[in-house]
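Figure S7 source data.
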Amino acid sequence: MSQSSIPKPPFIAENLEITDIDQEGRGVSRYGDVVVFVEKAIPGDVVHARVFKKKSRFMEAALHEVVKPSPLRQQPFCRHFGTCGGCQWQHLQYSGQLQFKAQSVKAALSRIGNLSFPEPKPILSALADTAYRNKLDFSFSARSWLTKEELNQGMQDQPALGFHVRGVFDKVLPIESCHLMPPVVNDIRNAVRDFSVQNGYEYYHLKQHTGWLRNLVIRMSADSGKIMVILSVASEDSEKLGALFGMLQTRFPAISSCIWYLNQKLNDSFQGLEPRVWKDTAPYLTERLGQYQFQISPRAFFQTNTRQAERLYQVVHEAIGESVDVLYDLYCGAGSIGIFVSDKAKKIVGIEYVDEAVKDAADNCRLNGVNHLSFYAGDMKKLLNSELLRKEGRPQVIITDPPRAGMDAPVVAELLKSGAEKIIYVSCNPATQARDLALLDEGYRITMVQPVDMFPHTTHVECVVVLERKA
Ligand SMILES: C[S@@+](CC[C@H](N)C(=O)[O-])C[C@H]1O[C@@H](n2cnc3c(N)ncnc32)[C@H](O)[C@@H]1O
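Tokens for the predicted S-adenosylmethionine complex:
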């Protein structure tokens, strides 16, 4: 079928054979000579799809009916699957998820980076595919997300505690049970919900800016099982906070730390807010990675899948090879990679944007008795320059672990000038990693590619790429 004979959306495209999957996890098919991306469809499916958008070269569609299921299809195990945007791939068997994640790394390196590279190592699967996270962020909202059926039944706005529905900032999907952390976390969240409703504590209205309870974050140490509960509220009220925290501490002895934020801003971000420790509870949790301990303060950045982070860091540790004199840990967060590989260098220099993370990094060094690491706080493209390299020494090895957007071009240029023998590039976004690797190709060749699955049932994939300086 040609472009011009395709009807105007919405319409149902029948019997689409799904042949591939895109970076966002959507099934890819063809309708005549036009590519169609179908949400929740997977390779091997034959589906009817409701096309809702038509552009010149592609169309977007929602799954209408699975006519013939792919052998990789499975029944999603979460009751919130489909509405909650958290685990997009629960309908795909874990082996299939791994296959497509590994494929996406290879595709990015060859298609975006146009690079030559050795065959990637088999993807490191997660040790557990449920209860693998150590932190979840929930929101309170005066307006719950209502399904079509609930709206048809005339259901009205009601308070909800759960996750934001993708693309809808003021409505929250009430969560009864989430499989991403151990079951006690569901019990805690539901106890907060029941207690607050029974006692008339108002949930925040994200448009009208009224109400009291705003956010609930639950962190749990994979090592000790101890739990930190963090609440953000719109006004100071020790009586209500005391009642809520008191109930939680009595019912859940694993809660060792109760923290609260006063948030009177128009948005929910904790940025610029001071965490306050409730009474005599602990100001942080302690987590372990390998032989090292880490203090997790309320706003500390810490890898959310502890056990898999340990395996990721082991890959980095091994990739360093022989011990070196100077190693740089770029985008170092709270210093966890640098500390984990601290036996591999006489001197380690960490650079990180967030000031508090750098303070945490220094505390974590003291906690572990490692004193050959130093940290700089600030923007990488300003801090990483020849002056710093002169002052701290030229690195033999550079580890870089940037955010999803990848590295800024001036940072890549500094890496090329650094003279480092080896660069270990850890990334959570194969597309930006491939873009940066294409620039680094001027001076470095890829010697190892190791994809790692940190987040089962999502489309995300982590990848470690080792580069060696060209002769
Ligand atoms: C993917 S995290 C890595 C954290 C750490 N390596 C770890 O494994 O825990 C990326 C880090 O880069 C930091 N970051 C983002 N943009 C930055 C910039 N322009 N300059 C320096 N650090 C930055 C973030 O604050 C974050 O801590």
